[in-house]
Amino acid sequence: MTHQPTLDEIRKAPKVLLHDHLDGGVRPETVIDLARETGYDGLPTGDVEELRAWFREASDSGSLERYLETFAHTVGVMQTRAALVRVAAECAEDLADDGVVYAEVRYAPELHTSGGLSLDQVVEAVLEGFRQGSEGRGIRVGALLTAMRHQARSMEIAELAVRYRDVGVVGFDIAGAEAGYPPTRHLDAFEYLQRENAHFTIHAGEGFGLPSIWQAIQWCGADRLGHGVRIIDDIQVAEDGTAKLGRLAAYVRDKRIPLEMCPTSNLQTGAATSLAEHPIGLLRRLYFRVTVNTDNRLMSDTSVSREFARLVETFGYGWDDLQWFTVNAMKSAFIPFDERLALINGVIKPGFAQLKWQA
Ligand SMILES: O=c1[nH]cnc2c1ncn2[C@H]1C[C@H](O)[C@@H](CO)O1
Ligand SMILES: [Zn+2]
After folding, report:
1. Is the per-residue pLDDT at 17 higher than 70?
2. 302 three-state secondary structure
3. SS3 for 196?
4. Is 180 exposed, middle or buried (0-12, 13-18, 19+ CB in 10 A)?
5. Ligand 1, atom 14: nearest CA belongs to which residue?
6. Which residues of this UniProt protein bind substrate (predicted)?
7. DSSP state at residue 220
């Protein structure tokens, strides 16, 4: 290994993204275009660069609740079929340009019906956009349907996810403010999904701590954890660096439960204080099944490559670490085993081997 991977080299690596919100990754210029086309008049500015900076700064609030307020503007312009097709197509294009070869992109269908679309029409529009944007670009994009945890539509959304599972929807999720809205509030939806042999992840351990993670896994049966950073509260590190895992942390590691970590987003919402102190460093050292994600590319002005580059800079990671995160993510995807394996052996490993050879 001669030098640390640079951002340009990382962009060329075949990457996998499991946690990315469609309404958190809209291009600023598209937000402005769509606002004009759909008559949305709530934007803080009509200038592309100012709007890009506004999202980044307004999201730096240190609170998940305030961070989520910025979504009013993206959701506000995503209320027509044409807008949803465009945003989804551009999402697939942007991820492919960043070198992502497999992505699971999530959004909440219930937030996109105020212009008169039905839930089914919302799902069909987004799938069409992913299809258009992926075509010929060497990327596969699956959808995760999110239910908002403060609302009461999770069963309906879970049924929607099952209905569309053979045509591009690969799983289910709950998102929104975590404190006060525990995962068990949606237990019926999770039990339904389990009976249907369907996959789901749960945002847990981001804006709230261990009880949320415990419920997500032990009551609801989550396959993966969105963020999960607060699992760190169940790990004690002695002065000599040795770590003692509590029962929940040990369970998460032993069962290889994937953690969808989103470092930059966590700094903005206050889930972590600095990148150097971000739990990802310890969790990677302890071989938890860590994956690296963007959460919201617009709000965090980021990409998978940039998240990787920041980790390289902070923790001194090399190609082997980046490949490890990537293989972890591919193993944790919600598509069938044989398809995951084909991507690992046919795309990811050869891609990283070439970059390592060139380094
Ligand atoms: O990091 C997050 N935690 C909880 N909820 C989130 C996060 N990022 C986005 N959301 C919410 C806001 C979006 O409107 C919704 C669906 O993508 O999910
Ligand atoms: Zn998220």
Report:
1. yes
2. coil
3. coil
4. exposed
5. 71
6. 21, 23, 176
7. T
Summarize pLDDT for 89-129 with one digit per residue, the tens. Answer: 999 999 999 999 999 999 999 999 999 999 999 999 999 99
- 321 close to ligand 1 (CB < 6 Angstrom): no
Task: Choose which residue among 22, 150, 203, 300 to substitute to test ligand 1 binding: the one with the highest number of ligand atoms within 8 A of its C-beta.
Answer: 203
For residue 1, what pLDDT is reported?
47
Reported as type and span, the H/E element at residue 104 is strand 100-107
Domains and CATH numbers, the chain: 7-358 (3.20.20.140)
**50 a catalytic residue:** no
- From the list 9, 104, 178, 206, the catalytic residue is 206
Distance CA 292, CA 262 (A): 6
Coil, helix or strand at residue 206 = coil
Angstrom distance (rounded) from CA 292 to CA 17? 7
Which tens digit of pLDDT belongs to each residue from 217-250?
A: 999 999 999 999 999 999 999 999 999 999 999 9
User: Which amino acid is residue 151, in one-letter code?
Assistant: Q
Q: State the pLDDT at residue 2.
A: 57
ipTM entry = 0.99
Query: pTM of this prediction?
Result: 0.98
Contacts of 78 (CB under 8 A, 6+ apart): 22, 23, 26, 34, 84, 87, 111, 112
Quote the strand ranges of 54-208, DSSP E: 100-107, 140-148, 169-175, 201-204
